[in-house]
């Protein structure tokens, strides 16, 4: 059988905003230099070509291109399964197609035991993309972690016939939300899914915990490949690093999870006890931090 030859001549153009999305998906092919992503080498086999293609379909600025400059939609891998327990208890998919209107944030689909799904934050908007996600099953809820990721929430919620959630602290970013989270105490979303308000990155930041397995942390904390640990984006904490420290101190002991699934920064799967230990250590470190000027270049991806 004839095999399609590997694409050659891939490149990354000057529109790159250094959001790290592509490097998460193809870290062996894409690196960082001078404040932007750079192609380290061309793919050498179909597996590497698939990883580079995934990075290209996730890139919010569409900066990753083959020599033809036209990205072939046929190998689009999204939504991409990240975890499938095989028990019916849940599965998580990465949406890809990150949006420039959410600063290139990652978004996810969470399958529930009854076959419905929840969308956590939003990819770029498009009717064809919405239809693609809906093929996995009915989407009942769109859960926004904070204001920076709210751009397409209403459009996706209306397309799916879903409820749109946001915290009151960031309500001005989604004033037509259907469900409003309030205060700092945990709130049930559905069986097995809990919202934990975590003011700090923004006034209305929230993380969503599902099945004591998945932590959708928004921009509150993430896995850093640089430090190989949980970290906070200290230099892009818009509201208050002291509030974030207080939020973590109040909340960390209530959280048990194996997957950290952030909006920005990398994902990671570890045993729950190991993740709990790292979260305790992070909470102690953040308690020592003090405010600093906003500086995107200082984030340790």
TrEMBL record:
Residues 104-264 form the Metallo-beta-lactamase domain. InterPro entries: Metallo-B-lactamas (IPR001279), RibonucZ/Hydroxyglut_hydro (IPR036866). It holds the Pfam family Lactamase_B. SMART domains: Lactamase_B (SM00849). It comes from the Bacteria. This is MBL fold metallo-hydrolase. It comes from Streptomyces telluris. The lineage of its organism: Bacteria, Bacillati, Actinomycetota, Actinomycetes, Kitasatosporales.
